Amino acid sequence: MANNPANRRPAPPLAPGQEIRSAPRRMTRERMRWYVDALPTVEADDGRVHRGGPTIHDDDDYAKAQGLPGIIADGMISTNWILDLMLATFGPAALQAGSLTTKYIAPVFEDAVLTSVLKVEAVEGLAEGRRRYGLKVWCEDASGKPVTVGEATVVIPA
Fold this sequence. Notes:
This protein has 158 residues and is α+β, with helices and mostly antiparallel strands. Helices cover 27% and strands 29% of the residues.
């Protein structure tokens, strides 16, 4: 129950320039496989897991035939990791009012270690004591190189 995003409390007020960083996460083959199988499983809607593929996200031979050195992660994984950090930071408000837009700028290979980052760019006071945060968001690899970049807004209730 403690890990339920609805039970998380919003962070205290944050200031422009402040960064919030997640714990590093490893991009495993299993995580990459989940995203390949999600769409056919949802489409079938029969309570069973359906395998997708082959794709550049789950089949080494297929990925190499497309000019890649091996499988790469679906970009939605890093986007979801950014959203998870937003939920941990702002609680359910991260899902209630605002936006999240990301762009995948570099491939993420198996076993890469990623850290999600939120950087407060602006804080705007709104009516009734609410605050709107403008954020730069990204996932970076272990060397600090961004692989996913974007922007987000979150409106925090009074």
